[in-house]
Specification:
single chain; about 375 residues; alpha/beta; 6-stranded mixed beta sheet; two-stranded antiparallel sheet; about 15% strand
Length: about 375
C-alpha cells in the first residue's frame, strides 16, 4: 500500500513532464518504410466503379500503452511492437485497406442473350392488275354527245358488267333506253318555234353527272388495283354506232307510219293518189276519176293526194305549199272540192286537209 501511495505523485509528475522517449512515442514520425508492393491480382474493389480512388490510412505498426502496468520506478511499460503510419491507395489489395471493409465484390450474374428472332417471312407479291378496262366520265360524255344518252348509258352498263354487278348492268340498260325514248318524245312534242338543241345539251350534262356515280369504282380500279382506262376512240365508236341505230329506228318508224308507203294509184303518169286505213282501191279510183273531170288532175305537173276513211269519215289531203295554204282563194277552192265530193256520193262528212311535202298539216277545211 505504501508503494502504491508513493507511486501516485510520481505518476502525476510524469504525466506533466513525460520523458523524451514517451514524447517520441506520442508523436510518431512518418515512417520511412517502403510501401508494400501491390498485388499482381487486382482486388474486387479496384474493379468496382462505385468506390472512389481515395487514399486510405492503414495502420501497419502500432504501439500500445497500458497505464495499468505502470508501477514502481517504471511509470510506462512499452510493448515491443513499434508503430508506424502509412497512406495507401484504394487500389491496395491489402486486407487492411478500406477495400476490405467494402466487403466482397458482388458476383456478376450472367445475362442471358436476347432470343433469336425468326427471320421475317418474305412479302407476298402484289396481285396483278385487272385484265379489263373501264370507261371514265369523259368517255361517257363523249359517247352521249355523239349518240344520245343511249350510248352513254351503254358504257356505264359495260363498266358495271366488268365489275361483276350483273343486276346493276341490266338496270342501267333499261333506264338508258327509257331516257332516250323520253328525250325524243319531248323533242317531238315541242312547238316548231322552240329549238331542240337546249334539250340535247341538257341531256349531255345530266349524263355527265350520272357518270360520277362510278367515281369510287374508277378510283379503286386505277389507283388501288392498277387498272387502266378504256380508250376514248372506242367510246366515240360506240356513240357513232348508237347514232346510226337511232336514225335507222326513226326513219323506219317514219316510213312505216307514212301514208306514202301505202298503196297508190297513178294518173296521167305524174299524179298520184295514196289510200290507207279503210279506203279501198275502188275508192281511190273513183276519187282520181272525179279529180280528172274537175280539172285538178290535168297531167301538167306532179300532184299528190291522200285518201283515208275511218268511222264513216272521208279525209282527203292535198299537198300544197305553205304560202298557198294561207291564201284565201286557195282555201275557198278546196272548200268547194269538199262540198262537190259530198254531192258526188263520197261518204259524208268529207274533210279536206292541206299538208306540206312532209305531210305536215297546214290547214283543215270542213
Amino acid at each position: 500500500m505504501n508503494e502504491v501511495a508513493d507511486s501516485v505523485p510520481r505518476l502525476a509528475q510524469s504525466l506533466r513532464h513525460p520523458p523524451r522517449a514517451a514524447r517520441q512515442l506520442l508523436s510518431p514520425k512518418r515512417s520511412q518504410s517502403k510501401p508494400l508492393r501491390r498485388s499482381q491480382t487486382p482486388s474486387p474493389a479496384s474493379k468496382s466503379p462505385f468506390l472512389p480512388s481515395i487514399p486510405q490510412l492503414i495502420l501497419t505498426k502500432r504501439t500500445q500503452f497500458d497505464p495499468a502496468h505502470c508501477s514502481g520506478g517504471s511509470p510506462f511499460r512499452e510493448h515491443s511492437a513499434p508503430s508506424s503510419y502509412h497512406l495507401r491507395s484504394m487500389e491496395d489489395s491489402s486486407p487492411h485497406g478500406l477495400a476490405a471493409l467494402a466487403g466482397p465484390a458482388i458476383p456478376q450474374v450472367p445475362v442471358a442473350p436476347p432470343p433469336l428472332l425468326s427471320p421475317p417471312l418474305p412479302s407476298s407479291p402484289p396481285p396483278p392488275p385487272p385484265n379489263y378496262k373501264l370507261y371514265d366520265s369523259n368517255s361517257i360524255i363523249l359517247a352521249t354527245f355523239l349518240g344520245s344518252p343511249l350510248a352513254g348509258g351503254w358504257l356505264m352498263a359495260l363498266n358495271y358488267r366488268r365489275l361483276g354487278q350483273r343486276g346493276t348492268f341490266r338496270t342501267c340498260i333499261i333506264f338508258s333506253v327509257l331516257g332516250t325514248i323520253a328525250l325524243f318524245a319531248v323533242a317531238a312534242l315541242l312547238p316548231n318555234k322552240i329549238p331542240g338543241a337546249p334539250i340535247a345539251i341538257a341531256s349531255i350534262f345530266a349524263m355527265g353527272a350520272i357518270a360520277k356515280l362510278q367515281s369510287s369504282e374508277l378510283d379503286e380500279h386505277t389507283r388501288v388495283r392498277g387498272g387502266q382506262i378504256a380508250s376514248r376512240w372506242k367510246a366515240a365508236g360506240v356513240g357513232l354506232t348508237s347514232m346510226i341505230f337511232i336514225l335507222a329506228v326513226v326513219f323506219g318508224w317514219a316510213l312505216l307510219s307514212s301514208p306514202l308507203t301505202s298503196s297508190k294509184l297513178t294518173f296521167n303518169g305524174v299524179e298520184e293518189i295514196y289510200y290507207r286505213d279503210d279506203a279501198t282501191k275502188a275508192d281511190a279510183q273513183k276519187l282520181g276519176e272525179w279529180l280528172q273531170k274537175s280539172g285538178f288532175f290535168s297531167g301538167n305537173k306532179p300532184k299528190t293526194v291522200l285518201l283515208s276513211k275511218t268511222a264513216n269519215v272521208t279525209v282527203v289531203s292535198f299537198v300544197v305549199s305553205e304560202s298557198a295554204a294561207n291564201t284565201p282563194a286557195t282555201i275557198d277552192a278546196f272548200r268547194k272540192f269538199g262540198q262537190q265530193m259530198e254531192a258526188a256520193g263520197f261518204d259524208q262528212p268529207v274533210i279536206v286537209r292541206l299538208v306540206d311535202d312532209q305531210l305536215k298539216l297546214l290547214r283543215e277545211i270542213k
